[in-house]
Structure formats: structure tokens, C-alpha cells
């Protein structure tokens, strides 16, 4: 039992470390690409406009991320409502079955 728990825990830790490593390298890559793009734009448009362009790009990416996150949360809440409706239907069917069983049991006891 302990061996299985250790195995699962080890897999979770390895996946978490891998995700952390990927996130760190992604952040470093974004920093380098941003610096390179700013230098390239600086040479072509000047320092002020280069920073404005990079800020606009960053804002657009952030806005797209917020819209994507909102769309995902809306879809997951719709799925949650569907699951709740399914559960309510199951509970209603269970209550109806119990009532029918009780009703049939009462009829059977009177006949004997």
C-alpha cells in the first residue's frame, strides 16, 4: 500500500517539477524575445515608439488571455450546470422509485 502511494506521490512531484521547469524556461524565453524585439524596433522606430509598440503587443496578449480564460470558465460553468441537472434527475428518479416501492409494499401487506 505504501509503495503505491509513494509511486503516485513521486509521479506528481516529477510532473510538478517538470511544469515548473517549463514555466521558468518560458519566462526566460519571453524576456529574451522581448529584449530582442525592443532592440530591433529601437533601431527602426526609436526608443519611445519601440517601447510603445512592445507595450501594445503585451496588452493585446493579456487581453486575449483574459478573453480565453473567461470563455473557458463560462464553458466549465455550463458543464457544471448540466452535471447538476443530471444529479437532480437521478435524485428525483430515486425518490420516485422509493415511493413506488413503498406503495407496492403497502398494497401487498393489505392483500395478505
Please characterize this protein's 3D structure.
This protein is mainly alpha-helical. The protein has one domain (2-86). It contains two helices and no strands. α1 runs antiparallel to α2 (47-111). The longest helix is centred in the last third of the chain and has 65 residues, at 47-111. The radius of gyration is 30 Å and the shape is elongated. The relative contact order is 0.04. The model has no long low-confidence stretch (mean pLDDT 85).
What is the residue-mean pLDDT, rounded to a whole number? 85
> Span from first to last CA?
54 Å
Return Rg in Å: 30 Å
**How many individual β-strands?**
0
Tell me roughly what share of residues is in helical segments: over 70%
Structural class: mainly alpha
> What sequence of helices (H) and strands (E) makes up the elements?
HH
Number of helices: 2
Q: What's the domain count?
A: 1
Uncertain runs with pLDDT below 50, 5 residues or more? none
Question: What does the overall shape look like?
Answer: elongated
**Beta-strand level of the residues, as a percent range?**
under 5%
Main sheet record? none
Descriptive key words:
mainly alpha; 2 helices; 112 residues; 97% helix
Annotate the secondary structure layout.
Layout (H helix, E strand, L loop, with lengths): L1 H44 L1 H65 L1
Helix pairs in contact: 1-2
Amino acid at each position: 500500500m505504501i509503495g503505491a502511494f509513494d509511486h503516485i506521490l513521486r509521479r506528481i512531484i516529477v510532473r510538478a517539477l517538470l511544469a515548473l521547469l517549463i514555466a521558468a524556461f518560458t519566462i526566460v524565453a519571453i524576456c529574451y524575445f522581448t529584449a530582442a524585439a525592443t532592440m530591433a524596433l529601437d533601431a527602426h522606430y526609436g526608443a519611445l515608439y519601440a517601447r510603445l509598440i512592445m507595450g501594445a503587443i503585451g496588452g493585446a496578449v493579456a487581453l486575449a488571455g483574459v478573453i480565453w480564460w473567461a470563455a473557458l470558465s463560462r464553458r466549465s460553468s455550463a458543464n457544471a450546470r448540466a452535471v447538476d441537472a443530471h444529479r437532480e434527475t437521478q435524485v428525483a428518479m430515486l425518490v420516485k422509485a422509493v415511493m413506488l416501492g413503498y406503495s407496492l409494499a403497502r398494497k401487498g401487506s393489505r392483500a395478505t
